[in-house]
Design brief:
By secondary structure, the chain is α/β, with parallel strands linked by helices. The protein is globular, with a radius of gyration of 17 Å. Helix 4 links the parallel strand 3 and strand 4. About 45% of the residues lie in helices and about 15% in strands. It binds 3-methylbut-3-enyl trihydrogen diphosphate (IPE) (2 copies) and magnesium ion.
Length: about 220
């Protein structure tokens, strides 16, 4: 049986859910936040050590301003309202992605990371303003600047995911079978599960089915 250490999730389908049930994409984003809390709790229960959640991509800036503003409002609400509870639960928050964001958000994210840095029940990586191609180019630039040898180990030292083991599982909800510029390097040997349900409808039971399937997969890593 495979050990499950790291789960990465592309939380897709909020907009469609919002339109379908509330005639508003933003309502879908709000509902998606409840799923985030459920899945964090369930991950702790399953003794998963790393949970990486794709919350906003470098390409999501192409969306209408009103939607972008709402997403960052939600993030602000989530961090400021929940940080004490997350901290009490011994959850470590880490941001992966460029923190080139407005000052208020930047400060809040740093505060959340600092406050929870010594926690060790689970590490929740929030992929925010994250793009894998950008991450890869940035790492290569740093290797060149530091005049060090180009190899896998050195390359990984300059990724946002430095010191984080690769995901064992990638889940994408929302019935789209693509990676959308998420963790292209890190997902090389992850088991991928595409889920038809939209993110706000995804629940602990669906998660449990995936975990059970994962445990029984024969992982080869190129061997036999
Ligand atoms: C994913 O849901 C959440 C973010 C990208 C922030 P979407 O907003 O992409 O939802 P759909 O895919 O349009 O339904
Ligand atoms: C990926 O979903 C990004 C997040 C879930 C944050 P998108 O909805 O942005 O992906 P595409 O544009 O459909 O590929
Ligand atoms: Mg989408």
């Amino acid at each position: 049986m495979n050990h499950l250490n790291h789960v990465a999730i592309i939380m897709d389908g909020n907009g469609r859910w919002g339109i379908k049930y509330k005639k508003s994409r933003n309502a879908g984003h709000r509902a998606g936040l409840d799923t985030v809390e459920k899945i964090i709790k369930h991950s702790i229960k399953k003794k998963i050590k790393y949970l990486t959640l794709f919350a906003f991509s470098t390409e999501n800036w192409k969306r209408p301003k009103s939607e972008i503003n709402y997403l960052f409002k939600l993030l602000e609400f989530f961090i400021s309202e929940k940080i004490d509870e997350l901290n009490k639960e011994n959850i470590k928050i880490k941001i992966i992605g460029s923190k080139n964001l407005n000052k208020k958000i930047f400060k809040l994210l740093n505060y959340a990371e600092k406050k929870t840095e010594n926690n060790n029940k689970i590490q929740v990586n929030l992929a925010l303003n994250y793009g894998s191609r950008n991450e890869i180019i940035t790492s290569i630039k740093k290797i060149i600047k530091n005049k060090i040898r180009v190899n896998e180990k050195n390359f990984e030292k300059f990724l946002f995911t430095k010191n984080i083991p690769d995901p064992d599982i990638l889940i994408r909800t929302g019935n789209k079978n693509r990676l959308s510029n998420f963790l292209l390097w890190q997902l090389s040997y992850s088991e991928i599960f595409f889920e038809k349900k939209l993110w706000p409808d995804f629940n602990e039971k669906d998660f449990e089915i995936i975990i059970k399937k994962f445990k029984r997969i024969k992982r080869n890593f190129g061997s036999i």
